Amino acid sequence: MPSYYGTEAYDFSLFEPYEKKVTSSAAPKRAPQKKTKEHPHLKVYPKVQKKTDTKKAIKLQMRANMQKSVKVFAVMALLFSMLSVKIYCNVVLDETTKEITKLEQKLAVEKSEAVRLQMAIDSIVSVKNVDEYAENVLGMMKMEPGRESYINLSKGDEVVVSGGKEVNEEPSIFRQLLAYIF
User: Fold this and answer.
1) Residue range 118-136, pLDDT digits in tens
2) What does DSSP assign to residue 147?
3) Which DSSP letter does residue 146 get?
4) What is the reported pTM?
5) How many helices (H) and strands (E) in the chain?
6) CA-to-CA distance for 132 and 138, rounded, in angstroms?
7) How many CB atoms lie within 10 A of CB 134?
8) What end-to-end distance do the CA atoms of the chain give, in Å?
């Protein structure tokens, strides 16, 4: 059993080249050859084709090359414009974010100022200050419990009709029935 705790675990002999031993006296087997006539409908063309260097072919090739270069240039221009728009949008976004931050800071300052002013108003209009002002400046005094008097403003129910008309109030049948019973 191999030991895996030391350097003995690395068996470098597996990586060394070795010779294949032939145990039989027979010749090595050859791979079967492919048949070339399996597909009679296929034609075999030579690997090197003869170029026809006519003026028309050269002009067509130049035109095709020019069209490819125009396409490449157009794609590059499109990518450049998209990149420019992206950079511009990021710049505008950054400027807007800075402006929002400044406005938020201004808002925080204004809110703290509003709290300070509200506290100043509350201190001026407090009940204690109003009492002191009424007693000292205006010469008023607090009311004593015995000096209170109530006014009765109700004189009963009455109906006033416009235009000098009089209201003849006849008792309803229900009231007449109640009056008859009781």
Assistant:
1) 998 888 888 888 888 888 9
2) G
3) G
4) 0.37
5) 3, 0
6) 9
7) 13
8) 127
